[in-house]
Amino acid sequence: SREWHLVARPHGWPTPADFALRETAVTEPAEGRVLVRNLHFSVDPYMRGRMNDVKSYVPPFKLDHPMDGGAVGEVVASNAEGFAVGDHVLHGLGWREYADVPAQHATKVDPDLAPLSTYLGVLGMTGLTAYAGLFEVASFKEGDAVFVSGAAGAVGSQVGQMAKLKGASRVIGSAGSDEKVKLLVEEYGFDAAFNYKNGPVRDQLREAAPDGIDVYFDNVGGDHLEAAISSLNVHGRATICGMIAQYNDTEPVPGPRNMAMIIGKRLRLQGILVGDHYDLQPRFVQEVGGWLRSGDLKYGETFVEGIENGADAFLGLLRGENTGKMIVSVTG
Ligand code: NDP
Fold this sequence. Notes:
Layout: E1 2-6, E2 19-23, E3 33-42, H1 46-50, E4 71-78, E5 88-91, E6 98-102, E7 107-108, H2 125-137, E8 145-148, H3 154-165, E9 170-175, H4 178-186, E10 192-195, H5 201-208, E11 213-218, H6 222-231, E12 232-240, H7 261-264, E13 268-271, H8 281-294, E14 301-305, H9 310-318, E15 325-329
Parallel strand pairs: 8-9, 8-11, 9-10, 11-12, 12-13, 14-15
Antiparallel strand pairs: 1-2, 3-4, 3-6, 3-15, 4-5, 5-7
Helix pairs in contact: 2-3, 5-6
Bound molecules: NADPH dihydro-nicotinamide-adenine-dinucleotide phosphate (NDP).
NADPH dihydro-nicotinamide-adenine-dinucleotide phosphate binds at residues 44-46, 126, 129, 150, 152-156, 175-177, 180, 219-220, 241-242, 244-245, 272-274, 317-318, 320, 322, 326.
Protein name: NADP-dependent oxidoreductase
Domain Enoyl reductase (ER): 14-328
Organism: Streptomyces lateritius
């Protein structure tokens, strides 16, 4: 079985040399464990943080050990009650072909209800992040004008559509290519979108939201956050979900220059960790499942085929090569 190891800690942008695909033996599962043949695994922006040797909300990857993260696969051997060969499970030991998973960390999923890959995206971690970040953290309400950055990505594409479905007065998105911008407006029903590479975010946001915004969902940080603070209306709220523009920085960068506006406008900026919101899971699955069945909610997936391309998939994610959820399909 092959698995991806982190072999060097990246300084700045990671490179292929920081990763190695290594062989390991597959053993029968011990008591209370299941052996899973992974079919898809997730590569996510937060994994960049885990490549640094710093204390954070998730422990860093260990050098010369397999990396981990969300995965779905098929049980091929079981030594745990309640799990049988042929069951499909969601678990946390991605980045490898075969995973030896403690049964209490495996959740059965049904491939007949939804494609397996969606349990990593629209029905999984990134979908719940969008749902909780918009409805709980940003206290979204009908009539709000919403701006989301990283809008063509896994989280962002769901935030914009969910806001629209719940009665947003206007939804604006930013993304890194003209093609993505077109998708947001023509397929996902955004009222306006812009390519942040085509000009200053502040000017493009002003133009797209002449009456300002009430909610900002931040996936990017930097100039996006500064522009949003300028465009937020009185009592506006921002969910600080990610700051991908700075994950590869080697020095801390200064924050927005217009923070003083937070006072006069009585803004609320609040961080989110999706891990705090699993209590919403039943409501989330029911509501989002309904929207998916009715066709009201769309989602994208970018599949990279073959475990040997796992590290490249992660590097591609950081460069914006994905539309919707970036997924590695293990068997190719
Ligand atoms: P995405 O599917 O959005 O993929 C990442 C995207 O980021 C790329 O496709 C790229 O799109 C964009 N990007 C890369 N560099 C930059 C840059 N310098 N400026 C602007 N955009 C950039 O990933 P996710 O949906 O999984 O995650 C989105 C954000 O949410 C991330 O910041 C992530 O860390 C965060 N997150 C936080 C969680 C939490 O609990 N707090 C949980 C899950 C995600 P483009 O072509 O548009 O540049």
